[in-house]
Amino acid sequence: MASRIIGTIAGLSSLLLWFSFHFMNPYNDLIGIEPFFRTTLLLALPACLAIYAAWRRKKVPMLIAFIWSFPLSLYTGLTQSMYSFFGITCLFYLTSYFLMLLSERTNK
Description:
Elements: H1 2-23, H2 33-56, H3 59-77, H4 85-107
Helix pairs in contact: 1-2, 1-4, 2-3, 3-4
Transmembrane segments: 5-24, 36-55, 62-78, 84-102
Keywords: Membrane, Transmembrane, Transmembrane helix
């Protein structure tokens, strides 16, 4: 149950941060399609996958969401802005994965 809550909150938080990063960022170029495509591919889609994995209690998609979002989350996580929380949400994907793994092993 905890893995479901953590994974869902992390995914929703990532989606909210992505929305803010792309649509409310004063330094963002709203005309260019490349930054939108890149952030959607590397931040928003893994967040959707994490929400799906959390609700279906699927370990592999949660691990894929972590690995998929890790490079850009690490990059933004090392900045001094509110977008450094992408690093935290990515770590919550991994935490949710380990909790799923742990609950599976304790139920056997």
